[in-house]
Design goal:
Elements lengths: L16 E7 L5 H10 L3 E6 L9 H10 L2 E6 L3 E2 L7 E2 L4 H12 L4 E4 L10 H7 L8 E3 L2 E3 L3 E12 L13 E10 L8 E6 L9 E2 H5 L15 E8 L2 E6 L5 H4 L2 H16 L14
Parallel strand pairs: 1-2, 1-3, 3-6, 6-14
Antiparallel strand pairs: 4-5, 7-8, 9-10, 9-11, 9-12, 11-13, 13-14
Helix pairs in contact: 2-3
Amino acid sequence: MLLGYPARVTSYDSRPKVAWLVGGHPFDRPSLQRLIESLDADVDLVEWPAAGDFFTVSGAAKLVGTYDVLALYDMPGIRFNRGETPEFSAPPPDLVDAWRHITSTGMPLLVLHHAIASWPLWDGFAEIVKGRFHYAPARLRGVDLPDSGYAMNVTQRFTVAKPDHPVCVGLPPVFELTDETYQCPIFEDEVEILVRTDAPRDDAHHASAFAAVRREENPHWRHAPASNAVAWTHLSGNSRVVYLQPGEGPEAFENRHYRTLIGNALSWLATTRPEDSAPKIGAPA
């Protein structure tokens, strides 16, 4: 458990500047744009492949020097071909080096929804996020795992686990949201959980992601019950990370409580230093 949350820095006199990455996964652009416009932040929406310019050593240095927060709503490292097995690509060495620079310099990260599936052939990214959604059976931390599960349009009740945390300020103790749910591995013991869901987390209520992208049925698919955590924070190297699992589309983006979560997370990430409140957990390998 991480205690002693730093207060917001009241002397911070400008809106946080955010690089918000998209690409690799479809999304509702108009509703995302409305969400971004509602935030008290200066957001640049950067789409792949242009976003790739950030992931060289020189590009990462420019990213860290220009922006206060890096928001990930992208999904690089995967290519979908309708009805076929997804193509996974390993990150180039320059990209891994760029991520080492980002986390060693302490750039804050807001990771959203499907971004947890990024770079499936690089375990270092799963360590940055503290979990991974698998579009195909995979091996993670020496364990063979099935592909992950998903369920669309699930109406669920969220319970705030840390009401005194800056990311949760202004949220009611319990609120409702309709959104996609994931059934995937999360390193729950290594994060501070902010919000939990009452949505089922078992394979009886989820479907195989691998079967879905291949446009087929898999009634024999099985997956261990997943954590009910839907928002958490931790440190990766020197970078403070906030992950929010909801964010499929308009139902989340138009929800006032979800907007509060996003706004609070950006404000907190931009105005606090990681060494103020928590030990380091480790940098990507």
